[in-house]
Amino acid sequence: LVIAEKPSVGQDLARVLPGPFQKHAGAGERTTRWLEGPEHLVTWAVGHLFELLEPEEIDPEYKRWTLANLPIIPDEFKTKPKANQKERVRTIRKLLERKDVDGVVNACDAGREGELIFREIVEHFGDTKPIRRLWLQSMTEDAIRDGFANLRPGEELAGLAAAAQARALTDWLIGMDATRGLTKRLKGRREKGAW
Q: What is the pTM of this model?
């Protein structure tokens, strides 16, 4: 299973991989959800599919914004599918669970954010299939062929994935705690909304 970050990249990859590829859509849909060839399934994430739980989803006590509850530091950061990405998440789950899928290729954008998008997927599903990384700096046919001929072990980029996750968790911690703290301290009685 090859997971790209965007549909256009997935289609470019399928043009280079051994084909032919068949397009597959959801029931009664026209939108292609994945491409299936003799050796590869190709699908895409369309950006981040998951988001961290809001504080009140972690503990109902956090529904009320009080200084006494700060800082909010969860014991475990859990994710949920974004509301507008549930079909995409179902498609990827279905493909990951296929018996003929024996490994996963991370074909998301080369960089920290692409690594995070992919890792959120496999971690959310608890998938343990071997991961290989397609690292492309160019989308030419030769670059794609060379990239697939030289797939990197997924664990080789564990540090980049950890850096991406640390950035995401730090953003959440600062965003949730600072927004609530500043709002409680600085918001006037007649103001609506958060600082």
A: 0.90
